[in-house]
Amino acid sequence: METTIPQVLASAVRRDPASPLLTFYDDTSGDRTELSGATLDNWVSKTANMLVDGLGLGAGDTAAVALPPHWQTAAILLGVWSAGVAAEISDPESADVLFTAPDQAATTKASDRYATGLLPFAMPLRELPAGFADYVLEVRQFGDHFPGQPVAAGDPALNDRTHAEVLAAAAARATELGITAGGRVLVDAATHADPVDWLLAPLVTGASIVLCANIDPARVTSRAESEKVTLVVA
């Protein structure tokens, strides 16, 4: 039984590396990005390698992730957890590294700061805020395989909750939302912004995710049909 978030991700990738694990839509930008388990795992590995080999972070360190639901946010969060680093999504001030959007104000002591525009095709930013590096440019320099870090169920994972506590919360939310093993879940990012809902509840259950930002209600039915969705979580 999986007791940490990296173990949950590894099981999802191992179960079906080629099928879509996370599909992202933005009805304002027109973006559609589909990531198989293997592709998402590559982004996660690159992020973890950047944190461990590039920044020297690990157990006892904290990454502030001040980003909305997005496939890049998923890669960053899962990379943070794979690196043995704790994630903080509500209080970035004491973090050791910050990931944020360029227009997102955040007070932090972190000397390492990464911005991403969450743009289609993982395009880089045209202009970077002073003191920030571009996440999508920097992360591409690191390897697609992460050898792993020791991560235990009792280690901090998200907002002072341990991996075991976060996974228990995700399993409970999956039950409340009706997410079942092998399902394909369409999630409204605006109403389910907590990563426990939009990312971890499907993953811990063995479901794949269709994450929709700025969702157009008129497109929900047709999108659910085209993506072979089994459950809409709006």
Automatic annotation (TrEMBL):
Positions of the AMP-dependent synthetase/ligase domain: 12-89
Domain of life of the native organism: Bacteria
Record's signal peptide: none
Protein name: Uncharacterized protein (TIGR03089 family)
Natural source organism: Paractinoplanes brasiliensis
Taxon lineage: Bacteria, Bacillati, Actinomycetota, Actinomycetes, Micromonosporales
